[in-house]
Amino acid sequence: MPDTIAIATAADAPVIADLVNRAYRPGPDAAGWTHEAALVAGQRTSADQVLALMRDDSIVLTMTRSGTLIACVHAQKDDDACWIGMLATEPSLQGGGVGKAMLNAAEQIACQVFQAKVLRMSVLSNRPELQAYYERRGFRLTGEVQPYPLDAAVGTPIQSGLLVQSMAKALDKAYL
After folding, report:
1. In 14-80, which ranges are E strands?
2. H or E element: which one contains 52?
3. Phi-psi domain of 138 (left: phi exceeds 0; alpha: psi -120 through 50; beta: other)
4. Checking DSSP bridges between strand 140-147 and strand 163-170, what pairing results, if any?
5. For the chain, how long is the longest CA-to-CA vector?
6. Can you give the pTM of this predicted structure?
7. Which neighbouring-strand residues pair with 85?
8. d(Cα 40, Cα 37) in Å, to the nearest integer?
């Protein structure tokens, strides 16, 4: 059975939150290269936070394989841009192209549904390998840097001074 990409529903929120938390903040013996467990403690998201993303200007996409959730990504309209976030792949499947497929699906949503001219995302400054992953997919650092969002209920930094860097990818070459 081929992988299926679909728009998430409210019923998907708990399993999406579980996947995101396992992908971003797994236990010490977990596989995967994209997690930030050495940088941030606590849950990355909750079912209620995922549910709050399901609205007119925001879409959460899921990928299932044989009926099991294996990846997700969030796309949110912001004027002529689209913010991409919460890209998560089942840790045991990371490195196999699933994340790339989800990122491509988010880009299609940004173009076709939100008519975005640019994709934007935030990446922890202490994750050069993740920044490089996004750079290989056309994103560039914008120079915008902010402190880790302590009030966003997305975990607590383990390291002091943790920063979030913005990245962008032009969908309309004349835009950036």
Report:
1. 40-41, 58-65, 68-78
2. helix 47-52
3. left
4. antiparallel
5. 46
6. 0.91
7. 74
8. 5
Digit-coded pLDDT (tens) for 62-72: 999 999 999 99
Rounded Cα gap, residues 85 and 75, in angstroms: 7
Distance, in Å, from the CA atom of 5 to the CA atom of 63, rounded to the nearest integer, reads 4
Summarize pLDDT for 41-67 with one digit per residue, the tens. Answer: 788 899 999 999 999 999 999 999 999
**Distance separating the N- and C-terminal Cα atoms of the chain:** 40
CATH 3.30.70.920 fits 4-170, yes or no: no
Would you say 94 and 71 are in contact if contact means Cβ atoms under 8 Å apart?
no
Residue type, 66: S
Q: What is the distance between the alpha carbons of residues 113 and 109, in angstroms, rounded to a whole number?
A: 5
